[in-house]
């Protein structure tokens, strides 16, 4: 399906109406400047991620977590 096109001046006058149309239809809208595409307005589809998924791969494993760390090992651990 082809995206709807609207001029900047028309978009400015009816922005809230266009936002509602985009939210309800889920389709993009191209805003033109002198007939040329300038902007694309589309619904936001954020990626929902669990907190564990966000942290995955960010924690370094340390086998001897209860033993003291040597000074030269501390530099490489950072």
From TrEMBL:
Lineage per the UniProt record: Bacteria, Pseudomonadati, Pseudomonadota, Betaproteobacteria, Burkholderiales
Protein name (database record): Antitoxin (DNA-binding transcriptional repressor) of toxin-antitoxin stability system
SUPFAM superfamilies to which the protein is assigned, alphabetical: YefM-like
Similarity comment: family membership: Belongs to the phD/YefM antitoxin family.
Gene3D superfamilies noted in UniProt: YefM-like domain (3.40.1620.10)
């Amino acid at each position: 399906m082809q995206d709807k096109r609207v001029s900047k001046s028309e978009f400015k006058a009816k922005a809230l109406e266009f936002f509602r149309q985009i939210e309800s239809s889920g389709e993009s809208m191209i805003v033109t400047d002198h007939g040329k595409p300038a902007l694309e307005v589309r619904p936001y589809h954020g990626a929902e991620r669990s907190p564990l998924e966000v942290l995955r791969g960010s924690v370094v494993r340390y086998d001897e977590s209860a033993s003291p760390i040597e000074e030269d090992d501390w530099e490489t651990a950072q």
